[in-house]
């Protein structure tokens, strides 16, 4: 049962949902204001189509702004329609998907429109952690409207026509749009930290369908979202050789090699996304040192250190997973912190957020050490000391305070080169090996890279019924 409306806004909805599953709500609503001769203007659906449909049989609620009606601007009734979608989604426990194509506040309605903005913000905040929220920017999304995708759990932007900004490029001192288009999809995806992917409309709609299929429908939903046709004991080949790029590792571990990456363009030294293990959706956080292109050649290199952007990206992702009781897997390969002035300005705060996210999360947590795990940078990456349920490691992993060569140079500053080399071997054996960490209980199991999948499947199966008790408090402050 679809509306006869053939606008682009409706076309986007029908291309997203299962065939003939969309039912429009509030199609007869129009603008209520009569100021500035607005009553003489035809405002069908007040510029936003709202309703519900199915994605692979899963209920979703949708709003899609119609730029052909008053440029899709937000007025009183427009906002109330969106708020009503949120209210119904909260009652039914189903995701909310918003398609944004809007020129901003409807000037003819002034304070009523402003109140409408606030109403939308309030509904997003109320729904946060209760139902997944997904936004897609298909047109303009400027000023205060940029808060809407930023408050969503996942956001996409169309690569050519999508524009997102708080201040327009020409309003920024020293900048012009010809110099740097800060509203472009590419800039926003790489710099603002809330865009998961860019692409054509069809690519974004396909991504949203895949994402909805991987997520629990609400915070009481089941993480078993699919049947597993893959071999649970399948050997994972080339894991050790490709360990620098966790995108490869996660794809290799996952059922049918499924990996959905989030915030793909932002903080590329930290990878986040979703995999499947025996049909269970698992959130993944991983340090990245190498990016391979489609031909298997290195396209980017990073030091295995924590950056401020990387910590913020990971912390936000872990918080989302914990809110929806999605298990978290970390692939750890880190030796310290990024040393640059830009990162140093907010690195301590970002580290605090990351540490708080992992330590405060009560969802199942498993850490796999694939390379180095040194110092407090490792502690923040879901170590056993801040609450990991299981810590696994590959045989050649290094776990300790720091690299043995650096440690002995500090401990034996006046020693000769031969003595330093000898002490480094001794330090590595006593304090830097994965075996030493395992003997002290900080690593639960040393696994061969090829056997990684079957051990992770077993770990998350065991943790499915995990129940953790936390102190009675309103919420943390970090």
Automatic annotation (TrEMBL):
Domain CoA carboxyltransferase C-terminal: start-end pairs: 234-478
- The CoA carboxyltransferase N-terminal domain extends over 1-254
Instruction: Write the signal peptide boundaries.
Output: none
Keywords from UniProt, A to Z, are: Transferase
Official protein name in the record: Carboxyl transferase
Q: Which GO terms describe its molecular function?
A: propionyl-CoA carboxylase activity; transferase activity
Q: Tell me what organism the protein belongs to.
A: Roseburia hominis
The lineage's top-level taxon is Bacteria
Q: One Pfam family, short name please?
A: Carboxyl_trans
